[in-house]
Design a protein that fits this description.
By secondary structure, the chain is an alpha+beta fold. The chain has two domains: about 5-105, Serine-tRNA synthetase, tRNA binding domain (Helix Hairpins, Orthogonal Bundle), CATH 1.10.287.40; about 120-425, 2-Layer Sandwich (BirA Bifunctional Protein, domain 2), CATH 3.30.930.10. It has 14 helices and 18 strands. It has helices at about 5-10, 10-20, 25-30, 30-65, 70-105, 140-150, 155-160, 170-190, 205-210, 235-240, 300-315, 360-365, 390-400, 415-420; strands at about 125-130, 150, 165, 195, 200, 220-225, 225-230, 245-250, 255-265, 285-295, 320-325, 335-345, 350-360, 370, 380, 385-390, 410, 425. It has an eight-stranded mixed sheet with strand order 1-11-12-13-16-10-9-4. Strands 5-7-6 form a three-stranded antiparallel sheet. Strand 14 (about 370) and strand 15 form a beta hairpin. Helix 8 (about 170-190) crosses helix 13 (about 390-400).
Length: about 425
């Protein structure tokens, strides 16, 4: 959420940034200016009446002390109280309307973000490695997974429905191995602290990171009595909200956390997209990186976080590229996002495997996460950052497709072999 005073004082800038996102400022800001003006008028009028009432109260006291009739002034103060109450109620109503408008305004893109309308305008930052060369036609993971007996989509449909998967034997072990490999890398070499959060959160947590109210249709809601719980769409939600409504000691920043969790998404609006294989699932696993930073350090921390995610792909020997998302392709909470896209030879394309974002104070303001600079002074909002490092299922896909062999087997990357206890996946039926 943006700061009210900032929006009020920088409306032309906000409108221009919304246009850069391909949005109509009038539709997003609605009647912000008039509601804000009416709210301030109500507050000013209430404060003026309070000051007048205080003076009248003093006069009443003097009249009563001298034995004079103060009934007219007493009636006047009663009328003032009623008018003040009405004005304060109006101010509260305007506050609620302003908050609703502010919650609907996306973050403002950083000046370094490429301006564009869609993913076609994303900017290539760098590439690593090269695509593997095959002397045969490489297969997509859904064919390989079935032939190897490690990926079972038909039984998943029987158990639950479409967009779910069952992994067998070394396929299941690879999911677990990848998660452990990623966590060990980030905690051991990159200095993150591991945390295991709940997989269901309350509505306040979803609002804190920007999933609610905008993306309710993309979430799985779990009603429980009079409460609403939500299955997490990413570990970003519970991990970021660990510090909701807290004031951190600035000397502790940056705080770097990592978590491995299942993620649940309804994929509303994605009907017909990526129906083959496990690219777009209702349930999948991720290792997430989350940072809490001082504002002046957050863009350096974004570069570090992105490099940390890239290191997973490098150690696994997977060809990838880094794209800076354009204003038209960026998520609404982000001020700047890098996508890591891994090469999938079985499909002949690059596929997003991680998004690394700096949200600046946008989430922190919603979740009320602040810090005291140098451990003292007036609290300020932190900057929050997060990125997948990586999406485990898509990393699984990348390994299966990039390391496939002519005999139908799949080699296991050397970095993963100690976690797998195997060097190769060969066909097996279950």
């Amino acid at each position: 959420m943006l700061d009210l005073n900032f929006v009020r004082e920088n409306l032309p800038l906000v409108e221009e940034k919304l246009r850069q996102r391909g949005m109509n400022p009038a539709e997003v800001l609605r009647d912000f200016a008039s509601v804000d003006a009416e709210r301030r008028q109500a507050i000013t009028a209430a404060e003026t009446l309070k000051a007048q009432r205080n003076k009248v109260t003093e006069e009443i006291a003097k009249l009563k002390k001298s034995g004079q009739d103060a009934s007219a002034l007493v009636a006047e103060t009663k009328n003032s109280r009623e008018k003040i109450a009405e004005l304060e109620k109006s101010a509260e109503d305007y506050d609620a309307r302003l908050r609703e408008i502010l919650l609907g305004i996306p973050n403002l893109p950083h000046s370094s973000v490429p301006v564009g309308k869609s993913a076609d305008d994303n900017r290539l930052e760098r590439q690593w490695g090269a695509p593997p060369k095959f002397d045969f036609a490489p297969k997509p993971h859904w064919e390989l997974g079935e032939e190897l007996g490690v990926l079972d989509l038909q039984r998943a449909v029987k158990l639950t429905g479409a967009r779910f998967a069952v992994y067998w034997d070394l396929g299941a072990r690879m999911e677990r191995a990848l998660a452990n490999f990623m966590l060990d890398l980030h905690t051991g070499e990159h200095g993150y602290t591991e945390v295991l959060p709940p997989y269901m959160v309350n509505s306040d947590s979803m609002r804190g990171t920007g999933q609610l109210p905008k993306f309710a249709a993309d979430l799985f809601r779990v009603p429980h009595g009079e409460k609403d719980f939500w299955l997490i769409p990413t570990a970003e939600v519970p991990v970021t909200n660990l510090y909701r409504d807290e004031v951190l000691d600035g000397t502790r920043l940056p705080i770097s956390l990592t978590a491995y969790t299942p993620c649940f998404r309804s994929e509303a609006g994605s009907y017909g997209k990526d129906v083959r294989g496990i690219i777009r699932q209702h349930q999948f696993q991720k290792v997430e990186l989350v940072k809490f930073s001082k504002p002046e350090d957050s863009y350096n921390e974004l570069e570090k976080l992105t490099r940390n995610a890239e290191m997973v792909l490098q150690k696994l020997g997977l060809h990838y590229r880094v794209m800076a998302l354009s204003t038209g392709d960026m998520g609404p909470s982000s001020a700047k996002t890098y996508d890591l896209e891994v090469w999938l030879p079985g499909q002949g394309l690059f596929r997003e495997i991680s998004s690394c974002s700096n949200f600046e104070a946008y989430q922190a303001r919603r979740a009320n996460i602040r810090y005291r600079p140098d451990g003292k002074g007036k609290p300020e909002f932190v900057h929050t950052l997060n990125g997948s490092a990586l999406a485990v299922g898509r990393t699984w896909v990348a390994i299966i497709e990039n390391y496939q062999q002519a005999d139908g087997s799949v080699l296991i990357p050397e970095a993963l072999r100690p976690y797998m206890g195997a060097e190769r996946i060969t066909p097996k039926k279950f």
